[in-house]
Structures are given as structure tokens and as C-alpha cells.
Design goal:
It is a single chain. The protein is an all-alpha fold. It folds into two domains: 190 residues, no CATH class; 177 residues, no CATH class. It contains 14 helices and no strands. Helix 5 packs across helix 13. The two termini are 38 Å apart. It comes from Streptomyces hirsutus. Keywords: Membrane, Transmembrane, Transmembrane helix. This is Integral membrane protein.
């Protein structure tokens, strides 16, 4: 499939993702109505409102924006900054999803249920990452709209970047299915070129293993609580760049784990099953991508590695939330707290894992090529 044919499904998926998040954000203010509070309960309604407000384009009624402290009479200016932040957020979301979906759809465009399923999973993970990046890019405008951008700038940016990560998990799946479905309809009736070379199973396993090793090192070392504590306290900075610990941890920590204690080692092992599932999903995803891509390229394989790492982080977060849920009458949404917390780090180490896997495939494939016949 050419880039031109892959562009239409990518744009449709991007618009579907943006439309679903816009629709959810437009319902944010309805959650404060008495009926919503009675139906969901006050705690769950507040949790849903916290999920939807980062995608709401409406002007909040908070006094912090209508009459900000230290800048009386400039509430409209700060509200305009928030509107700019939301325009930037949705624009970046559409552009990033489309730009990442095009190489994935192009390289996974051959016929087959397996390729279609892998394409949906890859676009699902990339849609979550695109939403997180959109929030990240628009965070400076959002922080400035609060009227206190000069006070603890980096912690404020870290807080703004960590918002809005729950809704894209579901919305990105719908957008991915829509994009792959349209790609199936637009796919031309052509057979793959006969000269296409497929990596050997040994090469695919080696590439997946090396890529998973990158993610495993990041998960085992950088996600430990002692390392996190040293990053938090050891990075002080100066002036407006002080306290960068929260921002650094957001981009290098795939999760959070502690050493086992003598009181409940069994429960500690249960929580570690989420980390095992993350690594297993990364390995299996990289293994499939090596074989199913019509050509292993750095952009496509790195995007696939980012998607696999992101889905692994989501699965691990769901598992931790499930273990935290004790059947309380407060509702299950109160325990849905971990999903999406490591997506920023999944982008960083997914790219590194993808580059390592692609380099492995290139080297092994070049070494296995038959030597030209001598005259």
C-alpha cells in the first residue's frame, strides 16, 4: 500500500479519536449535576470529572480563572490561554496520530486476519501515546492559563502532562478499529512482491529479545522506589528550573515497584505478575512485527515497539488496579488509578527497543544473504 492510500484511513482514525475525546470532554460539566452524583456517587462522579476535564473545551467556572489572584480583571485573558491550549491539544492529537498511523498501516497492509489484528493493536497503542503527547505539547499553555506559571514551573508542567491519560485507552481502540476497517476496504487487489525477504524465526526471536531487554532494564532499574527517590531528591535545579524530579520520573519510569517485605511476599509476587505481563506483551509484539511487517524499517518497527510497550504498561496498570480493588461500596472507578502512568516512559524506551530490534534484523539479514557467485 502506498503512502497516499494509507493516509485516508490514518486521518479517519485521527478524527475518530479526536471526536470521541471531544464528545467525552463535552460531557464533563454534566457530571456535576445532581442526577449524575446520585447515579455514580459523589466520589466516582468526581473521578469521572477529573478524567474528562482535560479534554473539555468549555470554560471552567473556577474563580481561579474568572478572577485570578494577583491579576484582577484579566480572567478573560487566562481563559483565552486555556482555549488556546485546547486548540493546540486537539490539533497535535490529529497530526500525531495520523503521522504515526501512516507507516504502520502501510507496512501492515497485506491481507490476513493476523496482520489486521496486529494493526489494530499497534494503532491502539499509538493512539494512547498520541493523546499523551498532545497533552504534553499543550501543557505550557495550560500551566500559563492558571496564572502561576512562574511558581514551581517544572512541577506544574509535570502535573499538567500527567492528566487526561484514562479516556484515550478506550477511545484509541475504537479509532484503531475504524482506521484498520477503512484500510481493509481501500486495500488494492494486489499480490505481495515475490522478492520480499522475511526474517528467519531465529532473527525475529533475537530482535524481540534484545528489544525486550531494553524495556526490562528500564523496568527493573529505573522503576525501583529507591532509584525514584534518588531522582526526586537528587535533582534540585535552580530558579524556575528547580524541582525537576517529577518531570524526569515521568519520562523514565515505566512503573513503580519496591523490594519484597517479610509480611506479605505472596501479594508482592502477585503485583509483579503485571510486570511479567508487560515484558511478555513487548516480546510477543516485537516478535510478530518482525514477521508481519512487509519490511522492517526504523519508523514502522519503532512505532510498533512503542505501541507494544504502551499496551504492556496499560495491562500492568489494569492488573495493579484489579489487585487494589477490594469490592468496596465506593465503586470500582476509585481503584482505576494506575493506567497510563508510564506511557511517557513507554515512548522513550519503546523507541530504543525498536531501534535495537531493527538494527538486529538488518545485521542478521545482511549476514545471511548468499554471497554473489564468483566468475
Amino acid at each position: 500500500m502506498t503512502y497516499r492510500r494509507a493516509l485516508a484511513p490514518a486521518v479517519v482514525g485521527a478524527l475518530a479519536l479526536a471526536g470521541l475525546l471531544w464528545w467525552a470532554g463535552s460531557s464533563a460539566h454534566a457530571l456535576s449535576l445532581p442526577g449524575a452524583t446520585r447515579f455514580f456517587g459523589p466520589d466516582q462522579a468526581n473521578r469521572l470529572a477529573a478524567w474528562t476535564m482535560p479534554w473539555s473545551t468549555g470554560s471552567p467556572s473556577s474563580a481561579r480563572l474568572t478572577d485570578p489572584a494577583g491579576a484582577p480583571g484579566h480572567g478573560a485573558d487566562y481563559a483565552a490561554l486555556r482555549e488556546t491550549a485546547m486548540r493546540v491539544r486537539y490539533t497535535v492529537l490529529v497530526l500525531l496520530f495520523a503521522c504515526g498511523a501512516v507507516p504502520l498501516l502501510r507496512r501492515l497492509s497485506d491481507r490476513g486476519a493476523g496482520r489486521a489484528a496486529v494493526a489494530v493493536a499497534a494503532l491502539w497503542g499509538w493512539g494512547i501515546v498520541a493523546a499523551v503527547l498532545a497533552v504534553t505539547v499543550s501543557a505550557p499553555w495550560m500551566v500559563a492559563s492558571g496564572g502561576s506559571a512562574a511558581f514551581r514551573l517544572l512541577p506544574g508542567l509535570a502535573s499538567a502532562m500527567s492528566q487526561g491519560r484514562e479516556l484515550p485507552v478506550g477511545a484509541a481502540l475504537v479509532a484503531a478499529a475504524a482506521a484498520v476497517g477503512l484500510m481493509t476496504l481501500l486495500r488494492p487487489e494486489v499480490t505481495p512482491p515475490p522478492g520480499r525477504s522475511v526474517p528467519t524465526p531465529a532473527t525475529a526471536r533475537l530482535a524481540a529479545t534484545l528489544g525486550t531487554t531494553v524495556v526490562a532494564i528500564a523496568l527493573a532499574v529505573l522503576s525501583n522506589d529507591r532509584v525514584a527517590g534518588r531522582i526526586q531528591t537528587g535533582s534540585t535545579g535552580n530558579g524556575q528550573l528547580s524541582e525537576p524530579g517529577d518531570l524526569l520520573r515521568q519520562w523514565i519510569q515505566l512503573g513503580a515497584w519496591t523490594l519484597p517485605t517479610g509480611s506479605a511476599p505472596g501479594r508482592w509476587l502477585l503485583y509483579r505478575l503485571g510486570d511479567v505481563a508487560l515484558l511478555a506483551l513487548v516480546w510477543w509484539g516485537l516478535r510478530l512485527l518482525t514477521v508481519l511487517l512487509d519490511r522492517v524499517t526504523y519508523p514502522a518497527y519503532s512505532l510498533g515497539a512503542v505501541a507494544a510497550t504502551t499496551l504492556g504498561v496499560v495491562v500492568s496498570g489494569l492488573w495493579h488496579s484489579l489487585l487494589s480493588y477490594q469490592g468496596s461500596t465506593g465503586g470500582p472507578l476509585l481503584y482505576y488509578v494506575s493506567v497510563g502512568s508510564g506511557v511517557s516512559a513507554a515512548l522513550v524506551f519503546g523507541i530504543l527497543a525498536g531501534c535495537a530490534g531493527t538494527l538486529t534484523v538488518r545485521i542478521r539479514s545482511r549476514a545471511q544473504q548468499p554471497a554473489p557467485p564468483t566468475p
